[in-house]
Amino acid sequence: MKLKSLNLVLTCKVFLVLLAFLIPATPVKAANLKLDIYLVWASNDEKVPNSNSKKLNEEMANKLKKIFKWKYYFEISKQQGEVPSRATKKFNISKKCDIEITEMEGPKVEVKLYGEGKLINRTIKSLTKDELFTIAGEDKNETAWFVIIKLLEEK
User: Smaller CB count within 10 Å for the chain: N or C?
Assistant: First the structure.
């Protein structure tokens, strides 16, 4: 009786192993990066820079105020976008500014900032949900611009 049980168990194991090799592997689709991308203007002047802009949300403005010298931060543009897994996508964030985001292993991203078609900055950094990925530069009249990338969901 024990021999029959042992044979049955062995037969089942062999069947399961063969079945695993015969079933076609289903490819696992990696998740895309879901992002908010902001173009922000910073100033010590409370006046809104143009009619299309508005004050940056308080949470983000407070994070920036802890690091940078400006009192007021204005959202010039905002868009949501997705970068396909292990791919590159370009986003137009203003008439003069584009960014190109490449998801790398790690979880890291490479961000290339273009101003009027010319590469201005290239940065590689880890991207986490709780942090803001910020690229900034000073401008005239003691103002500054920021490109802020915010991860919406962890992979």
Answer: N
